Inverse folding.
């Protein structure tokens, strides 16, 4: 340590000048903002629930099931995702599809998100591109385990996130979730 | 009757000023630090959707602390444990009493000094109260029956003694220059002008003492950069075992001490309630211009000037609090005993020499 640093005073003063400059510059920006210049921002804070930053397009968010033209799920109940899922949290029941061209369809498709580790393997494994994780929805916590179980109907009703990465569907609230 | 009224009024003014300022400081602290760090700071507490830049957060904090569980450790000394926070807060609160917030005011034909407590040794009184505060801290550390709390209390005691010695020694220079221990007289003496234009504030006559006093004063408040007694985030301090409002009182005591140190600094070094060139009956500028004002207005200006100076000083103390990293325990001790204390003594000698050469006979 140099002797001049040992006295602290100069270093302390330079530090104070730095932080005081931040204070006054930010104060000025806040003031300009309050006076109507909305592009002036005194803080880098994003006011989360009201303001959201756009999510990256590759973000793995809440799952959704892709629909065919007629609204039935595109899933052909091949069980690939159920098999690959490392958390064993997908439960599928296969059934006949009314269209004779399509062999099978899932009559039940349940994901227990309480167990899901968001690895995205189910999306990778699907040969039909029937399951995706692009809803942009992240806030689906629940007070009960039952509230974390999402059924076929819920998963089918979800829309992909918009081009800005923001979710287009509201957060689905399963019937048995206590708010 | 008027006597009682005047006395109550003086005490009430100081009490409300200090208490409100202390309570508000929790908000100032959060907001100022946020703005310094490019953040927004707490702004969610609201009453009917009214947020007021988070001004309701101190209120929410108080409600939270009052409704929390008051925990007593099994082996704690219940009497001392319960008493300690109150001792801390009491000492910090009453210390402000002899700091003057204005010149005398005539009420019903009497000259009333604007100061809660008129005291010839007011300066010593403030020190005494500040030093007594350490008892609360030590009681808290000892009565918690927790070794970490005890060690924290010891660190606090060592730090306070270091700080008090340096404060006491650094102030002697000021006392020598203004020739009084009465805070009112010291402030009044700072109204004189040097060479016809320079207000004789303590910071100009005693610049070294100002730096020493401020450093030691910050140490006395036990806040960063001298917060090793408690060390909010890492090291465990003397109030580990406290919860609820008792914990809040310790935090409050630190903030009140900040107000007291700011008040002391303003009174001793920044001219107290003096406004430059404002005398009893108006402004008298050094270039000859004069501007008469009624007495009441002058007094009002002085009180406002005092408050503004205190607030500015608190802002500066907060700036230091949110800029500097913490001193290590041994560094703080070395700074206190090998830095501040000898320099204070040197300042006394220098001041004595200067007074002998140029001072009044
Ligand atoms: S993301 Fe991974 S854990 Fe979750 S359902 Fe798909 S495969 Fe299973
Ligand atoms: S891998 Fe695709 S098609 Fe196969 S069951 Fe899963 S979602 Fe359906």
């Amino acid at each position: 340590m140099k002797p001049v640093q040992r006295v602290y005073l100069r270093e302390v003063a330079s530090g104070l000048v730095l932080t005081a400059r931040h204070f006054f510059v930010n104060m000025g920006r806040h003031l300009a903002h309050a006076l109507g210049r909305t592009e002036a921002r005194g803080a880098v804070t994003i006011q989360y629930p009201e303001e959201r930053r756009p999510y990256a397009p590759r973000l793995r968010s809440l799952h959704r099931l892709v629909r065919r033209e007629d609204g039935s799920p595109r899933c052909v109940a091949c069980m690939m995702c159920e098999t690959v899922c490392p958390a064993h949290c997908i439960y599928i029941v296969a059934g006949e599809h009314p269209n004779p061209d399509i062999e099978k369809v899932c009559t039940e498709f349940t994901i227990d998100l309480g167990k899901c580790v968001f690895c995205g393997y189910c999306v990778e494994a699907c040969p039909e591109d029937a399951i995706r994780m692009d809803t942009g929805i992240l806030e689906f916590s629940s007070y009960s385990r039952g509230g974390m179980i999402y059924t076929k109907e819920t998963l089918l009703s979800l829309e992909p996130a918009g081009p800005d990465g923001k979710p287009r569907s509201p957060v689905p609230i399963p019937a048995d979730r206590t708010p | 009757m008027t006597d009682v009224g005047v006395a109550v009024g003086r005490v009430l003014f100081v009490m409300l000023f200090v208490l409100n300022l202390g309570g508000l400081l929790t908000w100032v602290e959060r907001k100022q630090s946020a703005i310094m760090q490019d953040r927004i700071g707490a702004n969610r507490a609201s009453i009917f959707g009214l947020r007021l830049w988070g001004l309701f957060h101190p209120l929410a904090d108080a409600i939270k602390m009052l409704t929390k569980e008051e925990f007593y450790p099994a082996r704690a000394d219940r009497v001392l444990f319960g008493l300690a926070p109150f001792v801390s807060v009491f000492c910090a609160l009453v210390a402000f009493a002899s700091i003057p917030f204005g010149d005398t005011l005539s009420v019903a034909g009497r000259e009333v000094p604007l100061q809660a407590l008129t005291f010839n040794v007011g300066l010593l009184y403030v020190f005494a109260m500040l030093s007594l505060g350490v008892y609360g801290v030590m009681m808290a550390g000892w009565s918690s029956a927790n070794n970490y709390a005890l060690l924290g209390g010891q660190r606090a005691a060592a730090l306070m003694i270091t700080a008090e010695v340096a404060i006491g020694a650094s102030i002697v220079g000021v006392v020598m220059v203004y020739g009084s221990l009465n805070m009112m007289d010291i402030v009044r003496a700072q109204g004189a002008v040097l060479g016809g234009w320079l207000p004789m504030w303590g910071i100009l006559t005693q610049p070294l003492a100002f730096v020493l006093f401020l450093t030691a004063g910050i140490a006395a408040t036990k806040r960063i950069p001298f917060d090793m007694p408690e060390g909010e985030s890492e090291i465990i301090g003397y109030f580990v075992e406290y919860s609820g409002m008792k914990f809040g009182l310790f935090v409050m005591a630190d903030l009140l001490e900040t107000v007291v140190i700011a008040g002391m600094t303003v009174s001793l070094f920044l001219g107290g309630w003096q406004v430059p060139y404002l005398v009893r009956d108006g402004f008298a500028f050094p270039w000859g211009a004069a501007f008469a004002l009624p007495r009441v207005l002058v007094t009002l200006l002085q009180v406002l000037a005092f408050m503004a100076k205190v607030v500015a000083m608190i802002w500066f103390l907060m700036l230091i609090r949110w800029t500097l990293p913490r001193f290590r325990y041994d560094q703080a001790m070395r700074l206190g005993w090998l830095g501040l204390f000898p320099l204070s003594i040197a300042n006394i000698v220098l001041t004595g020499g200067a007074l002998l050469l140029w001072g009044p006979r």
